[in-house]
Amino acid sequence: METKIFNMNGTENGSITLNDEVFAVVAHPQNINDIVKAQLNNERLGTVNTLTRSEVNGNVKKMFKQKGTGRARQGDIKSPLHVGGGIAFGPKSKTYDQRPPKKAVDKAIKGVLSILAKEGGVRVIEGLDFPNGKTKDVSKFMKDLKLDKALLVVPQISDNTKRAVANYKGVKVVTPLNVNVVDLLKYGHVAINVEAVKPLQEALVK
Q1: Cα–Cα distances in Å, from 196 out to 5, 12, 49, 56, 146?
Q2: Which residues form the domain of 74?
Q3: Alpha helices in 19-68 (DSSP H)
Q4: What is the pTM of this model?
Q5: Which one of 56, 67, 126, 182 is separated from 97 by 20 to 30 angstroms, measured CA to CA?
Q6: Domain final residue, candidates 56, 74, 95
Q7: Is 39 in the same domain as 106?
């Protein structure tokens, strides 16, 4: 498929042919859904942890004798029945990591890119860089391209570009190898540096 190339102020500056194997494939909703869930699960820390009665500090002396008091029998102070005691069946630390096959991940990325390309959400930009490190330059770029939110894909992220984008809500900058399904869906538009098109396509087409 062929798409226009824009410069930083939104003016057309030629065209480029995009690989149909990346930007014009049939999207599979279940595949995309599976990869999104896997990525979000990988971001979970799973650090919650409660102590059982065997892990709580305290002695194991019986609180009172078993019989003759008229009270219900009790064990030690670490019982879950007492304040400060252990927690029965509480949550424990665990990992939520999922590692779907790379082919499945690439398939989902290509599916979302194809949807965005069909809806006009893919822009190829010449010289996508912010050498002054100013957030106002990012704001002007977004206004000129008529974008509210966008994922910027560049060959390499310079320190100035990183600084310029850092304080602009609704914009994220990544390299071709770090493009992912969640970001594509979250931002809804992708602006690709013309020099990043080839490595992005090569990363997704084997």
Answers
A1: 13, 18, 44, 55, 21
A2: 45-95
A3: 20-23, 29-42
A4: 0.82
A5: 56
A6: 95
A7: yes
